[in-house]
Backbone:
């Protein structure tokens, strides 16, 4: 384990929304007042997860919450997530552009980060002057750039225009030159944000090829953010999935991309309603159906009681229906199942039954999960209805449970008693 | 591959990390060695500032002559002719020109370093390098402009000397160097204090605009300090730490100026304090300003 190059522990980043104004000043004064009395920052206790889809009540949001990972030397790691999941914030913290609110990242070796191509390019200066300027901004020494200058120009393919001001460049040429500088940086760790979206397919391929060389040939570590899943899976060996600022998965890239693609279309609404039994379904032999499913909790925290409500409709009369609810990880591994075996459901045609299920203090580690529901008739042991991964839900961290690692791979976290003697 | 950082791996001892990123940073951890490592970038920024400023201009660096010449004519008219303020026995043209040259250097250094964070937010948001490089490069590139104006001043003095006027010449000219260094560091210190404060509260941006203008009248630029002796409001000009520096600058050039060792020590102490506060504030703000700017 001695060849770890990046180790992130409990990284969180809180942002304050809204305008900076007198409110900021009073918050600052309050924060300062807590600080001089040796108390904790009062605003770290609050804050909501970063979900754009609803308007929150707090001015403070957690853009990243409790991120932990370790990266070994020579690894290529893809960071996957939707817009606003916190990918760029994480890269910004790793590149020292901004500071984490809590947590520590330890790194080994020089980090070159490419959050944007052509940072610091001055439109009035020539390509040659900009190569030196940009290289120096990225942390290269002058002689290092001079040594690699020909290689950089060659890679960029803009040799003819190298003494022309870059404001005369086409955007493609601009990006080519800028990426070429960054790609020739000698660093142990290379961080690349979605910068390849610009440039044509041929150049993108060239860039990915270069990054592959750097990683596999040069043995350097790469962190790569992209929405281009084929690019990520071909370049990276492991993946981290972020969702609303939380880390929901970290592991082999194949698994990560499967989970990401599978969860991309999952329902995150709290309630789903299905059509009732249609004549066609009855003709096909469907006898009963779950017609609605809802998670009643506003939010689910670690060790909360989860309340689920569902409605069952039946075409037959039965008094031995078994209803089951299961909780899966995002990689569709069943973690737990509950059934009403000692309290079977009776139902008549045309009289839907509303079922409320309580799961007391569920020890799910904070993270993303899916809900599966099913129904069968005990006597004949035939499945009547089964809906896998029908609702996706999140288990959140509370301030009092922040020490519980935010990692669903650790499975359930039930209460336990420990004795030492 | 990446594996979850759980309690087991946390136990492992590993001390050879080259860098630790955490929210807690010592107040005095200024990392000046890092600035040294990026010295090439410093020169490239200076070069960029100079080259880029005159692209697509006809007169190029000549513009640096035009501004002080016109200001000198204006001062000559307003302070010399209308207000009739004496110039310590120095030729009025070179007297005003010297004041304008040193004041221009201070005021441009102050106002341009004061905008460090807001003007460079787009670069700072994308890449890390020691932020101090930017204000340092600013005061150095302003030094080039100062040099050009100083050449103009010497040319004017030579012209007067050629025409039989008594022009001071001697080793005292070497005193220009410490004056400029102190001016640069005072401008830098105050500038980075203001740039650190403006990241969150833009009020200081407004303040600097007219503050610099008012400060000029409290500095003996358009009048000699000797003119104030015995006047009740003179103390406000004495409190100004730039006053002894300006007088020393005139002494260096013309052999005439009112300053004392104590007043120079006062200026030096002020510079040191402003610079220390500035560096500490700047260092603290540079890590999180992206979230507030």
Residues:
């Amino acid at each position: 384990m001695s060849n770890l190059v990046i180790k992130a522990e409990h990284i969180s980043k809180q942002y304050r929304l809204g305008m900076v104004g007198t409110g900021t000043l009073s918050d600052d004064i309050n924060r300062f007042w807590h600080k001089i009395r040796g108390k904790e920052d009062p605003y770290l206790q609050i804050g909501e997860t970063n979900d754009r889809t609803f308007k929150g009540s707090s001015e403070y949001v957690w853009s990243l919450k409790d991120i932990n990972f370790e990266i070994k030397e020579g690894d290529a790691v893809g960071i996957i997530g939707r817009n606003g999941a916190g990918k760029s914030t994480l890269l910004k913290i790793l590149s020292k552009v901004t500071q984490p609110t809590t947590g520590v990242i330890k790194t080994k070796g020089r980090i070159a980060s490419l959050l944007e191509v052509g940072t610091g390019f001055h439109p009035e200066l020539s390509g040659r002057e900009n190569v030196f300027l940009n290289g120096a901004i990225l942390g290269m020494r002058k002689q290092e750039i001079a040594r690699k200058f020909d290689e950089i120009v060659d890679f960029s393919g803009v040799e003819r225009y190298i003494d022309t001001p870059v404001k005369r460049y086409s955007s493609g040429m601009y990006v080519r030159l800028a990426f070429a500088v960054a790609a020739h940086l000698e660093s142990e760790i290379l961080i690349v944000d979605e910068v390849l979206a610009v440039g044509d397919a041929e150049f993108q391929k060239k860039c990915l090829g270069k990054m592959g060389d750097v990683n596999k040939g040069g043995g350097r570590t790469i962190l790569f953010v992209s929405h281009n899943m084929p690019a990520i899976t071909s370049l990276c060996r492991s993946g981290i999935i972020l969702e609303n600022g939380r880390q929901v998965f970290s592991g082999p890239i194949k698994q990560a991309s499967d989970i990401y693609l599978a969860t991309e279309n999952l329902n995150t609404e709290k309630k789903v309603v299905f059509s009732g039994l249609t004549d066609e379904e009855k003709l096909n032999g469907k006898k009963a159906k779950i017609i609605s499913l809802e998670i009643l909790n506003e939010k689910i925290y670690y060790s909360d009681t989860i309340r689920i409500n569902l409605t069952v409709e039946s075409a037959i009369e039965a008094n031995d229906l078994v209803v089951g609810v299961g909780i899966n990880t995002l990689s569709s591994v069943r973690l737990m199942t509950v059934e009403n075996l000692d309290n079977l459901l009776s139902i008549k045609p045309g009289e839907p039954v509303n079922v409320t299920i309580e799961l007391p203090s569920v020890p799910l580690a904070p993270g993303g999960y899916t809900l599966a529901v099913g129904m069968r008739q005990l006597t004949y042991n035939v499945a009547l209805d089964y809906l896998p991964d029908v609702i996706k839900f999140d288990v959140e961290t509370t301030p009092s449970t922040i020490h519980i690692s935010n990692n669903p791979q650790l499975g359930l976290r039930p209460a336990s008693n420990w004795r030492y003697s | 591959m990446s594996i979850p950082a759980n309690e087991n791996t946390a136990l492992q001892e590993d001390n050879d990390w080259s860098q630790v990123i955490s929210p807690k940073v010592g107040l005095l951890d200024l990392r000046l060695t890092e600035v040294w490592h990026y010295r090439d970038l410093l020169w490239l920024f200076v070069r960029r500032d100079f080259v880029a400023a005159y692209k697509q201009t006809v007169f190029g660096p000549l513009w640096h002559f035009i501004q002080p010449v016109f200001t000198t004519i204006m001062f000559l008219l307003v302070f010399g002719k209308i207000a009739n303020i004496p110039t310590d026995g120095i030729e009025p043209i070179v007297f005003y020109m010297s004041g304008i040259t040193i004041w221009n250097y201070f005021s441009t250094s102050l106002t341009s370093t004061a905008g460090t964070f807001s003007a460079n937010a787009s670069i700072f948001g994308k890449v890390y390098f020691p932020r101090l490089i930017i204000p340092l490069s600013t005061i150095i590139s302003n030094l080039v402009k100062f040099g050009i104006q100083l050449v103009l001043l010497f040319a004017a003095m030579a012209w007067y000397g050629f025409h039989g006027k008594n022009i001071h010449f001697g080793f005292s000219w070497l005193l220009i160097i410490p004056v400029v260094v102190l001016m640069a560091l005072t401008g830098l210190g105050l500038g980075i204090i203001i740039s650190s404060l403006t990241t969150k509260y833009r009020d200081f941006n407004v303040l600097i605009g007219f503050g610099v203008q008012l400060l000029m009248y409290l500095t003996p630029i358009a009048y000699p300090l000797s003119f104030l002796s015995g006047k009740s409001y003179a103390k406000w000009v004495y409190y100004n730490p730039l006053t002894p520096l300006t007088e020393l600058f005139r002494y260096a050039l013309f052999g005439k100026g009112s300053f004392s060792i104590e007043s120079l020590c006062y200026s030096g102490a002020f510079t040191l304090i402003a610079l220390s506060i500035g560096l500490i504030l700047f260092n603290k703000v540079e890590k999180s300003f992206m979230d507030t700017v």
Chain A touches chain B through 67 residues (CB under 8 Å). The longest helix of chain A spans residues 201-217. Chain A has nine helices and 20 strands.
